[in-house]
Design brief:
By secondary structure, this protein is an alpha+beta fold. The protein is built from twelve helices and 33 strands. The chain is about 15% helix and about 35% strand.
Length: about 725
């Protein structure tokens, strides 16, 4: 197998410079995958010969409470008696038998061909698994993962070693199961996942309720969770099982709206702050354009008990071999090398390579769906980056300056609830319509901005920028939004990073306190992590606002805000400046993985439209996406989603969203249609939610239910 980077030293040899995470596993000699594997099979694996693959559908795993979970297995066919293989588990609620089948089959076949048993598990209450999906990431779900790891390790075809991987939800479950330290779980590879469910997920950001992300995920899961188990797997009482699930599965959104502050609910399933709970090896994939960038660096910094590495590219929330913006890499190649080392004992040098591999972006003309960013790959031995320094720039009368201002001044700006539409649709990008920021100047014309002089030399920033602001407000609840941008010599302003804080959370997210109108507060905002080079001749710009529509739900009160600068109130930006890398740049395989073609599909034209109603004084963002998956056996699943989000220029308490989601499943004589709608509106004191669910079977109504809920706004 071809490897890239520094060769790994022999056990007991001298470590090369920079190999901080060089690890010898005491329980597994190099070159073995356990006592059941023979030398001849090891030689074949070194020659990269592919295994024939056997697929087993609907393998039932019985849990401690009698609930049976449904798994699909892709198993390599042994070449000789007694040959065993490690297993790789992915557990998510996204329906392994239809919605995710084509992609699952392609990736798991790839892994099985390379000597792994791929296990794709429907979490309880979803897909063809029994039980109820009462919420995401429940205690029962995590314990199921622990039991699934043990079940896989105990199978006669397994060598006793298990890995977990997953993108998004599957990355969360990999981290959460690893926190329990099941003995057979030796390595995880989370992709776009979080260590903190309150600060870095789709529900709340900086103590603010999200809008665009919550609208897309929360209501669509009501519909997906209402789809039936596969009839031939459920048996004769299929319809009764399905109806019982429909009657008892709640919309997860209701609980989320009640949990507006950090606490035990969000700490469950969060690794932070106790990072020492993970002891198995970690390969963390992240993207600068994704929502879950921050956890990649935090886990690298704090998971001191785990051998760990990260790959942080420019990507949105999609697989790194096809996500925009490029450059792209063959992530399956990196995943397999990592698991070869930890699950098979292949001495391939992967753990001698640098712990931190990041793409350092630089100015690229901003557009919503860029094909590729300018920049370069860098390698560092660790994060925080050794030798990094902090560079401060002070806010003063429209300028960012390295010297503190000599005069005291205040910059006043009104609360604009509809501000922010030149930015990204969500906190991270994804498939259309979830695009990135365009030229920010239309937004910047409506808020205070502070711009540096042109740079004399490039400035490399890797890590978490921080902003200290001295703010006062005329309302008891207000929001601070900050954007950091790169201003090209032609004036174009390109987003680099951003941050947000509900100012009632200025002392923490557990016990918010109202603002005293007119009082000046010092507040700190940690901006989204970045890897970026500001080029010579470019300028840095900081914009300060009070809203970010439609990403965030607006704070409810009309207000005048004041930003204070000067000797007594030194508002400032602090940048983590990275030194030149002491290591050669990483080299990746960039040709696509050789994945088998499975099934097919089609996408409908997406919509991302921004409309201003002059007479109503409102701004509406309209979204649409849809498509159909065609499965190899002739079944088909269509899904689409329509969303409208409306905020009002002069009435911040009044905002609303409407979501309509449809799933249409055709399989073997049945046609099931699930339609969910969510109407969500706010007043100054409350959040009102109306969810409607209708399920039809062969054109007849099979189930209907409505949920009407009101949640008081608690300084939100």
């Amino acid at each position: 197998m071809q490897t890239h980077g520094r060769p790994r030293p022999a056990p007991g040899g001298n470590r090369p410079a920079g190999s901080r995470n060089w690890i010898q596993r005491p329980d597994l000699p190099f070159g073995s995958i356990g006592s059941k594997m023979t030398m001849s099979s090891k030689r074949r694996q070194t020659m990269s010969e592919l295994y024939a693959v056997q697929v087993e559908h609907n393998v039932r795993l019985r849990m401690r409470d009698g609930v049976e979970l449904s798994a699909n297995l892709w198993r390599p066919m042994p070449r000789e008696p007694g040959e065993t293989f490690p297993a790789i588990l992915e557990m998510i609620p996204y329906r392994k038998d239809d919605w995710r089948y084509n992609g699952d089959a392609a990736r798991m076949t790839y892994l099985a061909q390379r000597g792994y048993v791929g296990c794709r598990l429907d979490v309880r209450g979803t897909g063809s698994s029994q039980g109820l999906a009462l919420d995401e990431y429940t205690e029962a779900e995590t314990e199921d993962g622990v039991e699934a790891v043990a079940w896989l390790a105990a199978q006669p075809w397994c060598n006793g070693r298990v890995g977990m991987w997953g993108i998004s939800y599957g990355g969360f479950t990999a981290i959460q199961v690893a926190m329990r330290q099941p003995p057979a779980l030796k390595a995880i590879a989370p992709m776009y996942a979080t260590d903190d469910r309150y600060t870095d997920d789709v529900h709340y950001l900086g103590g603010c309720l999200t809008a665009s992300e919550l609208a897309q995920y929360a209501v669509s899961m009501v519909a997906m969770n209402a789809l039936p188990p596969r009839p031939e797997y459920a048996g004769a009482d299929w319809a009764a099982q399905w109806k019982a699930r429909l009657e008892q599965t709640p919309p997860w959104l209701i609980r989320w709206l009640r949990e507006q502050t950090d606490g035990p609910y969000w700490r469950h399933g969060s690794l932070a702050p106790d990072y020492g709970r993970i002891t198995c090896a970690i390969l963390h994939f992240g993207g600068w354009s994704d929502s879950y960038t921050n956890p990649v660096l935090r886990m690298q910094a704090h998971c001191a008990n785990a051998p760990r590495k990260l790959i942080l590219g420019p990507w949105v929330h999609d697989y790194p071999d096809g996500a925009y913006p490029g450059p792209n890499i063959d992530w399956l190649h990196e995943l397999t090398r990592f698991f070869d080392y930890w699950l098979k004992g292949v001495d391939n040098g992967v753990m001698a390579e640098p712990a931190v591999r990041v793409f350092r972006a630089e100015y690229t003309p901003p557009e919503a769906f860029p094909q590729r960013w300018n920049g370069a790959w860098l390698a560092y031995p660790a994060y925080p980056i050794p030798g990094a320094q902090t560079h401060a720039l002070y806010l003063d009368a429209g300028r960012l300056t390295p010297q503190p201002p000599g005069a005291q001044r205040s910059i006043h700006y009104p609360h604009r609830p509809t501000w922010g539409t030149a930015g990204p649709l969500c906190s991270g990008g994804g498939g259309a319509p979830n695009g990135l920021a365009r030229d920010l100047r239309p937004d910047e014309a409506l808020c205070p901005t502070f711009t540096s002089a042109p740079l004399d030399a490039p400035l490399d920033v890797i890590g978490f920028p921080e902003v200290v602001l001295h703010l006062s407000c005329t309302a008891p609840v207000a929001t601070a939004v900050v954007r950091l941008s790169d201003v090209h010599p032609d004036g174009t302003s390109a987003l680099v990073s951003w941050g947000v804080l509900n100012l009632t959370h200025r002392a923490g997210h557990t016990d918010p306190q109202p603002l005293i109108p007119g009082e000046v507060y010092e507040v700190r905002l940690t901006l989204k992590a970045v890897g970026y080079r500001f080029l010579a001749g470019h300028r840095l710009r900081l914009a300060v606002a009070s809203a970010h529509w439609p990403m965030l739900w607006p704070s409810p009160y009309p207000a005048e805000n004041a930003l204070h600068c000067g000797p007594g109130t030194p508002s400032r930006l602090s940048l983590p400046i990275a030194p030149p890398s002491p290591l050669p740049p990483p080299v990746f395989k960039t040709t696509p993985a050789d994945l088998p073609a499975v099934g097919g599909g089609r996408d409908e034209a997406p919509v991302w439209r921004i409309t201003e109603d002059v007479l109503a004084g409102s701004l509406t963002v309209s979204l649409y996406e849809g498509g159909e998956s065609l499965l190899p056996d002739g079944r088909a699943l269509f899904a689409d989603e329509r969303i409208e989000l409306t905020a009002f220029h002069h009435d911040p308490a009044r905002a609303r969203l409407y979501n309509e989601c449809t799933y249409r499943l055709k399989e073997h004589g049945y046609e099931t249609e699930v339609r969910s709608t969510g109407a969500f509106r706010s007043t100054a004191t409350d959040l009102h939610l109306d969810i409607q669910l209708t399920v039809t079977l062969n054109g007849n109504v099979f189930f209907q239910k409505a949920w009407l809920e009101t949640a008081p706004r608690r300084l939100l």
